[in-house]
Amino acid sequence: MFIKKSINSYLQELSSKKPIPGGGSVCALSGALGAGLLLMVVNFTLNKEAYKRYFHELSAILKRLNAVEENFKKLVDRDSQAYLLIVKAYRLPKDTRLKETFRRKKIQAALKKSTAVTFEIIKHSASAMKFSRRLLDIGNKNLISDVGVGACMLESAIKGALLNVEINLAGIKDERFKEGISAKANSLVNEARKIAHFVINQTSGRIINPDFAKSKSARRAD
Q1: Tens digits of per-residue pLDDT, 167-180?
Q2: CB 100: neighbour CB atoms within 10 A?
Q3: 91: pLDDT strictly greater than 50
Q4: What is the pTM of this model?
Q5: Cα 177 to the chain's mean position, in Å?
Q6: 6-37: buried (b, 16+ CB within 10 Å) or exposed (e) per residue?
Q7: Which of 51, 60, 93, 216 has most Cβ atoms within 10 angstroms of its Cβ?
């Protein structure tokens, strides 16, 4: 749908008067960009003599991040498809009691589907974020800024996805579903935000001062 199009084409459709792509798709793309940057760091680190002791760990991270990036690519389109279900449900006729009941059921199902898809963006972003923290220490030092930017992109994906989860939950009537998703999402978001803050703080600090990682300010950021 969108992931195979050019960046220019995607941006044109994003800024047009069309329902898709929207915020959720952008969050997935942001996550893919963040994961992509971390993958670049890994690829520039593997097989380097200075980092050979981390070869097996880096290889495992490479495999995991590749899987995460692929999931993000799918979510760029899956989120748009899920949103179209919501649009379609709201457009159903409601001129009779039976039709109105059917319409409400379809809306609820579509909102749940969209929420589940957006939650996946949060889940994969949080997973990738953990690798950004590790790459601060075992990644190619010449690409430390890319680790920081990767964390920034993943944090944006998480924050945006949480907003989309919240707006969907506002329209869902199933309280058990709402409580379950909300608890899981907030737990992942809180943990990921702490890691993002640490990684970004460390990135900036180490660029300015190579000994920053050993300082008290760095430990406080953790």
Answers
A1: 999 999 999 999 99
A2: 13
A3: yes
A4: 0.91
A5: 21
A6: eeeebeebbeeeeebbebbbbbbbbbbbbbbb
A7: 51
